[in-house]
Design a protein that fits this description.
By secondary structure, the protein is α/β, with parallel strands linked by helices. Helices cover about 30% and strands about 20% of the residues. The protein is globular and about 35 Å long.
C-alpha cells in the first residue's frame, strides 16, 4: 500500500466537509487519504449535497480500502448535532479532537 496521508474533516458547521466530499468526488485528492472525523457528519453532508461518495468507517489505517472515503470515526457527532453555517460548540469540540 502507498503511503497514507491523514486529513481532518474540519468543522461540521463550516465548509470543511463539503470541500472534502467535493474534492474526493472529483478526484482532486491525488494521494490515498484517511479522514479524521465523524462518519455521521460526512454522511449528513453527502446526503444533503447528493455527492454519492462511498464513506467507509475504519478503526485503524490498516483497514484502508481504495475507492472509498475512509474515515477514522471519532463518534462525537450525530446528524442532529450538525448546524450548517451556525457556531456550534459540539462541532468546534469535534474539530479540535480530529487534530
Amino acid at each position: 500500500m502507498n503511503q497514507l496521508f491523514g486529513i481532518t474533516a474540519g468543522d461540521s458547521s463550516g465548509v470543511g466537509p463539503e470541500i472534502l466530499l467535493k474534492a474526493f468526488r472529483e478526484n482532486q485528492i491525488s494521494h490515498p487519504v484517511v479522514v479524521y472525523g465523524d462518519v455521521e457528519a460526512l454522511a449528513y453532508y453527502d446526503d444533503l449535497l447528493h455527492s454519492g461518495v462511498r464513506i467507509r468507517r475504519i478503526r485503524r489505517c490498516s483497514e484502508y480500502e481504495p475507492g472509498a472515503l475512509n474515515v477514522l470515526d471519532h463518534g462525537l457527532l450525530r446528524r442532529d448535532d450538525i448546524t450548517p453555517g451556525e457556531i456550534n460548540a459540539k462541532s468546534g469540540h469535534a474539530a479540535r479532537e480530529y487534530v
